[in-house]
Design a protein that fits this description.
- This protein is an alpha+beta fold and about 190 residues long.
- Helices cover about 25% and strands about 35% of the residues.
- The protein is rod-shaped.
Amino acid sequence: MMVRLNTRHELPQIGIRQTQGRLEESSIIQPQISGTNRQAQSNKGATQPPHVSINSYPSRRAYGHRTMGDLMTEQGSRGISDVKSATTAHTKKAWTKATNAAKRGDDVVQEIKAEVFGNYGARAVFYYSAVPNPQIQGHPGQVVGTPDRGNISVDIETAPSARIRYTPGSVETYMKNEGFIRHWVSYGNYDISA
């Protein structure tokens, strides 16, 4: 009988476990804008309209229309001057009387009469002087104020990269079946049942 060599084999198999990569979040970080916005303003304004100021007091004063303060000042000065001149005149008369009273021809009554009635023949005395012009001063209107040029500034803050959350995939290989080769012998026929 003839000896037969039987062979049975199975090829190795490789298994693959695979996980897909996942992009869970992907977004662009929006720029953040900040800044100031102070609008320009003129801040200009006009003073009161042009006007004229007139000081007519020097002219009115020349005509005799004085303020009470000026009148009192003039009357006070005049009173002091009158007192000084009267004091001087009375002192002179007193000394004259003191030295000449005992002399003949010194008639006191005649002197008083001459002094009292001596002004009857006096004439009116008029003084004239130039009347000063009124003081006129013009005041032009003015534009005052300092303009504000404003301030507009923009600050943009950007992120250097997008917001991305990614889970990477994986690939794993393993030996699913190692495979085999078997040999055995049979007598007569091949062993097809094995």
